[in-house]
Amino acid sequence: MPVNNARLSSATAAKLLFAAASIVLFACSPEAKMLRLSCEDGNLEDCNELGNRLVSGDHVLRDYVWAASLFQQACDGGVAQGCYRLGRMHEDTLGIVADHGLMLTLYRRACDGGEAEGCNKLGVMYRDSIRLVPDLRIAFGLFQQACDGGSMLGCTNLGLAYRHGMRVTRDLARSVELFRQACDGDEMSGCHRLGESYADGSGVAQDLMRAAELYEQACDGEAWVGCVALGDLHGSGTGVDQDFERAAELYRQGCNRRYGEGCYKLGTLYQNGTGVERSPGSAAWYIGRACDYGYQAACGSR
Length: 302
What we know:
The protein contains 17 helices and no strands. By secondary structure, it is an all-alpha fold. It folds into three domains: 8-100, no CATH class; 115-206, Alpha Horseshoe (Serine Threonine Protein Phosphatase 5, Tetratricopeptide repeat); 227-302, Serine Threonine Protein Phosphatase 5, Tetratricopeptide repeat (Alpha Horseshoe). α1 (10-28) crosses α4, α3 (44-56) packs antiparallel against α4 and α4 runs antiparallel to α5 (80-92). The longest helix has 19 residues, at 10-28. The chain is globular and about 65 Å long. 46% of the residues are buried.
């Protein structure tokens, strides 16, 4: 007799999924088996942790659908990180259709439950008008809450608020403190922003060599904007040796990870034959990719 899935509770649906995938989990990871059993016994923190592993593929096969059901179960049971993780799945369209309205609700629930990364995401939505009327005052408060709660990305966004005077008196020295805090906490976007401060002499004495070091740190940590910024320094010979081949390599690194500005700048090198062999065809291809990846300056150059 067919089962009406629409009538299944989230807990029942999760249990059916548990049964279907248990053999794979048993074979791959005894620890995952223990998490599954603990989750079945009602430990929602372990449901959330198992969901994290199913998303990352940590000693188990990736299963986004099952992960989403586990995060929902955890979120419904008051585990704030489950709400945040399910919101991220909607934002990144991992195995589920993006629902920005639900994403907003999930980030708000996460933030209200003490999950600092949820506060940061909610702040970004207020700042960037993502399904919300822009409200920089609320965004600033959320970034402060996120940073105070241990979100290093929240500290980076709070630093940007101080850099640009976003509903607060502009304070470049404070922005540098926050970027440094984030970078020291292994948030690579903080390292990139701190590098910008050193490059511009904004809130700190200008030091182009230090800027290059920070851009490289960000690039090595997979903040692709850092790769492009370091490529710019190599292209101009600012703070580092001028090296167009190295610049091309760094732009390519960003482009390969779908960072549009890297594609665009690599395309211009192919246009001019700088650091690479001149190729109008390659130039057009990379500039096209830049537009496809959302870099608007490239869209008028196709």
